Every structure is written in structure tokens, then in C-alpha cells.
Amino acid sequence: MCADTPKALEASLSGLDWEDWLDRLDDVADADGYVERLGADHAAIFIEHKPTLLVTFESFASLRVVSPEARPMGWELARALGWSHLCLASKTDSWFREGRVYGYFDRLVDDGFFEEFDQVIFYGAGPAGYAAAAFSVAAPGARVLAIQPQATLDPRMTEWDERFRRRRRLDFTSRYGYAPDMLDAADRAVILYDPDIEEDAMHAALFARANVMRFRMRFMGPRLDRSLIRMNILLRIIARFSAGKLDTASLARLYRARRTDVPYLKSILARLEDDGRLYHTARLAQAVMRETPGPRFRRAIRAAYAKAEEQGVAMPPREID
Fold first, then answer.
1. Which residues are paired to 191 by β-bridges?
2. Mean pLDDT over residues 192-207, rounded?
3. 223-249: b (≥16 Cβ within 10 Å) or e
4. Do residues 269 and 296 lie in contact, with contact meaning Cβ atoms separated by under 8 Å?
5. pTM score, two decimals?
6. Is 68 buried (19+), middle (13-18) or exposed (0-12) by CB count in 10 A?
7. Do the Cβ atoms of 220 and 271 come closer than 8 Å?
């Protein structure tokens, strides 16, 4: 951690509702930045430090789950690497489709705010991933990391996505609207997604651009960002992205952390069981039990061998009862 880390980044913000959380942020950010409310449901929180700027889009509900201290996710990276941080926070998942948010970015552009930094990185996941891509156009030359982003919710483009029907009333056709087009000004963008979630895979396909790398992370489920945080690789991904060292090979190396991630292994196990692949179920469960014993995998071993005996299926040597 840098010796001159802004004190605001150390503050605990847990146990507060939206309004109190913003009031507390306003208090702690005063010396190093600011909090600006953008209507009733959005806010911008800026902490100034070193000349790399991380811009994150985060929902209040999600960050309280990810951070025990209810701090913006970007604060951890700002503390570790000494970066400046701008958090666009929303009270609920809003895709940041709000006129005051547009106006805020317009003012940043007019003031030359992004030009004051040597590097700008936009980050978000899900609805916030959409926003990270969409608003990155305000900082030409920025880099963008978006996890499971939607391209748009405009039903004329994505009527196949039934997950967010109520949010189709949001305007995705005006300014900062279609996220893939907004990436044209970016230096580089990386899209991470689970191809087994059909809607996410279809949205990812819409982001196909020469400056966009799409990377598949199977069996991670609908909250891929939380899985990467749990595996302690999300911040490493962002740091390598900043250094220009993030490519398919380096992502694949970082992604190897899944091999010891129990929730991921349980997801693989469930898929094998659903597919009736008894041999592979036994092999996986026994391999996991050698390193991380657990009742879920022990039950899987017993069930697989019992079914194999009934069906006369050849199985690997049984190592664990």
C-alpha cells in the first residue's frame, strides 16, 4: 500500500442505507475528492491520488455484498496501486440510464477531466458492465473491462433476452445508448462471460469489434464478477490490463485459479451428474477429495458407484469410500 494513501479509502461504510452511505462518503472523501449526487438514485464518488484513473460502475446492493465494509470495489485497487478512483454508484440496477448521469459525463468532457490522467480504465459487471462500455466514449483511448455486459435492452435489438423485461422501458436509443458502438473510441476492451448463459453469450457476440477481446469463462454462473473476486484474481486482471499484459494466454493462466475453487468445482460436478456421466463424476469427486474433502463430493462418489453397479458401467478404481 502506498504511504500516502488517501485516508478515505480506509473508512468503513457498513450498516448504512443509501442516503446515510452517501452522507458518510461525503464526510470521508472531503479532503481527497468529492461526492456529487446525480438525482435521487445515482452519485459520483471521486478520490484523487496518482495519474491512473479507475472508473467503476457499481450498484449499492451489490457492493454491500462484495465488500464487508461497503466500500466501492475500486477502492481496494486504489489502495493497492495508488490509483485515483471515480465510482458511479446507483441505488438499484439502473444501467445508469439517467439524464443527470449523461450530464455529469458531459461536464467531465467539457472540463477536460479525463485528459488529466495518464491512463483511464473503465470497469463494470452486468448492468454496470453495460455502463462501463457505454460511458467509456467520454474518454477516448480508455481501456474497458466489462464482465457479462448487456449491449442494450432495446427490445428491437435484444427481444430474445427475457431477464429484464421491466427495464425495457428505459431509453437505450439516445445518448450513450448502444454500448458496443461506444467502444469504438476505446484503446482496448475485454469482455468476460460465461458461454453457458445463452443470453450473456449473445450479448457478448454483439460486442465483436477489432479492439475487443472476448474471453469465455464456463460454469461460472450469473455472478461471474463475484466468482473472480472470491478467487482473488479480479484485481490481478485489472492490474495486468493496465500494464498492457492482458491477453488470452495470461487470462487463461489467471483463470486456472478455478481448479481449486470449490463453488466452481461443485458447478462442474452438478453438470456431470445431470448428464449422467458416472465415470467422470467419480474421477472429479475423488480428485477434489484428495485436496479439499467435503460431504458434497463424498456423496457424489457413493452415488456414482452405486448407479454404476446397477447399470454395469465400468468405473475408475475407487479411492475414497
1. 146, 214
2. 97
3. bbbbbbbbbebbbbbbbbbbeeebeee
4. yes
5. 0.91
6. exposed
7. no
